[in-house]
Design goal:
The protein is α/β, with parallel strands linked by helices. It is built from 8 helices and 20 strands. The strands form 6 sheets. Strands 5-2-1-9-19 form a 5-stranded parallel β-sheet. α1 runs parallel beside α3.
Length: about 290
């Protein structure tokens, strides 16, 4: 009997569980490790923020899905990976021997690398934490106690889409409110990795929606209610949202896995670790060579 340990209930692992549920393997034991009993589908997150979907419509019940797949579910997260002994150590003290381990945990927020951001900003990643805080902000806004100024740090696809979705929802909840929205990015333009036509369209949309764009505005430090910018400027905001990309956890590198320059697990075209064949990785945690 071989044991497959799935670290994280991400998109790829949900499909793995679905397939094992449809066609169980007699010679395989499955274990799923995730800190949450639910999986929030990130592709529907902006639609949920905007109020187009209910929470249930964009969440999956991991525990129930694991049960269908005859998979043991452990509500925890990976702390360390012993690749020589092939053992996963979880944050709740559980240890799991494995024959194959697959990592689909998603990524964290780079907010932790900016002084004060982890304490005074709300990162879009991890999604579960954001979902809870955004729900509270919507309730406060509906009762007239919401923020008057919201700053989105990150002018890539996530920052642009989420700030527009937030604006739509809050104006729906409180039509009479006059909330100011700001979008800040390091680059000289929004959506720097997209083509000029896309940038032009969203530049126009942001202007029409009254979102103030601050290109070339790298955030150097965050205090309660204030962003300090590189070069000496600052911006006051009642709520600061962080969407500047993805950050890798430390345990893959500390475990001895080959990682790229940002700390993501290096994999080949089969999503298999280039240094340890017993390890696979998918999603944001993987860096494909």
């Amino acid at each position: 009997m071989k044991r497959l340990v799935l670290l994280g209930g991400g998109h790829s692992h949900i499909e793995v569980l679905r397939r094992f549920g449809a066609a169980p393997a007699a010679d395989a034991e499955l274990v799923l490790v995730d800190p949450s009993r639910e999986f929030a589908y990130s592709g529907m997150l902006p639609g949920w923020i905007a109020g187009h979907y209910t929470r249930d419509e964009c969440h999956l019940d991991l525990e129930s899905l694991a049960r269908v797949a005859r998979c043991r579910f452990i509500q925890s997260a990976c702390r360390t990976l012993d690749l020589d002994r092939r053992v996963v150590s979880c944050e709740d003290g559980t240890t799991l021997r494995f024959d194959i381990v697959s990592v689909d945990t998603g990524a964290g927020s780079p907010a932790q690398h900016t002084p004060g951001a982890a304490l005074h900003a709300l990162p879009v990643r991890p999604v579960d934490a954001f979902v809870a805080r955004w729900g509270e902000m919507g309730q406060r806004t509906a009762s007239g106690q919401g923020p008057r100024t919201i700053a989105m740090v990150g002018a890539g696809a996530a920052g642009v889409e989420v700030v527009l979705a937030m604006q739509h929802r809050l104006r729906t909840l409180a039509p009479a409110s006059d909330i100011a929205f700001h979008l800040l990015g390091d680059a000289d333009t929004i959506l720097a990795e997209h083509n000029p036509r896309v940038r032009a369209i969203f530049t126009r949309v942001l202007e029409e929606r009254g979102v103030t764009v601050h290109p070339g505005s790298a955030v150097e430090r965050v205090e309660s209610g204030r962003l300090h910018l590189a070069g000496g400027g600052s911006l006051d905001a009642d709520a600061i949202i962080w969407a500047t990309g993805a950050s890798a956890p430390s345990w893959p590198k500390l475990s001895g896995l080959a990682v790229d320059e940002r700390g993501f697990i290096r994999v080949d075209e089969r999503l298999q670790s280039i240094s340890h064949p017993c390890v696979f990785a998918a999603g944001d945690i993987a860096g494909i060579d």
